[in-house]
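ENTRY TYPE: paired fold submission
RECORD: A
CONTENT: sequence, then structure tokens
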Amino acid sequence: MSIRNSVMGLTLVAGVLWGGGAHAQYYGNDDRGYGGVIECKSSGYSYAQCPVPWRDARVARQLSDTQCRRGQNWGFDRRGFVWVDRGCAAQFVDASGGGGGGYYPGNGGPTPPPWRPDPGWNQRFSVRCESTDGQNRFCQVDVGNGGRVYLERQDSRSPCIDGQTWGWNRAGVWVTQGCRGVFTIDRRW
């Protein structure tokens, strides 16, 4: 077993534990010689994350009846996770330029154009996210590739400390240990 496969296996185990119900399966190279296929499923229409060893991902084969649409019910965050939600289930492959050569494995055709948001997508808005009873909570909102999140107002007695009791990724804001607040989403593509 190679070091890469060992690391990938450990990463998948960690991702399944963090993703709260994520179904992830690593297939190694597919029959066309691509650098691996990751299967990621949203079980029960819930949010899930699956770790990948790439800088970007694309859908190679859709497995669900629900249409998987980038930026709506699946995406890629800057920490190296594919996220799925609302029933999207698919096999994902590297989209960062390695192995694809312009060939889309899902249907044998050309690589589809990258998803781009509509004009007006880049905007600033606020969302409330609350950890009740000290539980972990993830508040989903697409922050975008170049977006940022700021704590606008703390509404809890428990402290909201960036990186400890709250944080964010491209898919949204997480809170824990009783942190409740209003967060400014500075969404940028």
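RECORD: B
CONTENT: sequence, then structure tokens
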Amino acid sequence: MLALRHKIPATVLAIAIAGSAFAAIIHTTAGPFGGFFGLWGADVSNQQSVGARFIPNGDFTLTSIKIWFMNNSSSAHPTVRITLRTDQSAGTVSTPSNTVIEQWIFNVQALGWSPIQEVVLSTGGVALHSGVKYWVVAESTASGGSDPVWNFASVGNTFSATSLPSGVWQAGGFGAALTLTVEGTAGLPNPSDVNGDGSVNGADLSFVLSAWGPCMNCPADINDDGLVDGSDIATLLSAWTS
């Protein structure tokens, strides 16, 4: 795993995004500041993708993911793609699968080695099941020297993995903790609440109608058969709340 170190404390700039008042912490690590090594992390570039694994201790609906990033560039804001993925295990080997549950693409805010916590919000009513392994993966097409750096936490360790330039994941294992906070609301989502606002109503119906036809891995496909059609409408109407 490629890492960078920086011994001078940096000013923290955090994104303030209001979350649900009922959000629970599903997984969290310490922040990047104050550790023995100072500020350091894993390069996320066209040569290496990075993943951190977490396992919920109950059933939740995902609301947000928070990651601290710094930047090898002091002038450009490289693009990073964050994906929530399922796990693929073979014996004792655990790595991220190619199955993407939800994704977010943004430009990192940090310039240089002054970390900023990036916050992404889930909009798809994503279910996180108790005891199931999930991965948060960071990817970027930025070249080395101008790429984002996923900060390690100041203390602790967690299960993580890195990929080769070919895209093949190396065997995961426990090491320095990649900063990661996953939040959600208790309980699994209602699949008919396709816009994730807590109600099944006309807004959800409009959402389903707008996605009519083939639709793989999308919230409007309520029965998850790869097609948005009358069956999904019938399921939605049976769960109508307002």
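NOTES ON RECORD B: The helical segments are 202-210, 230-238. The first strand starts at residue 3 and ends at 6.
STATUS: closed
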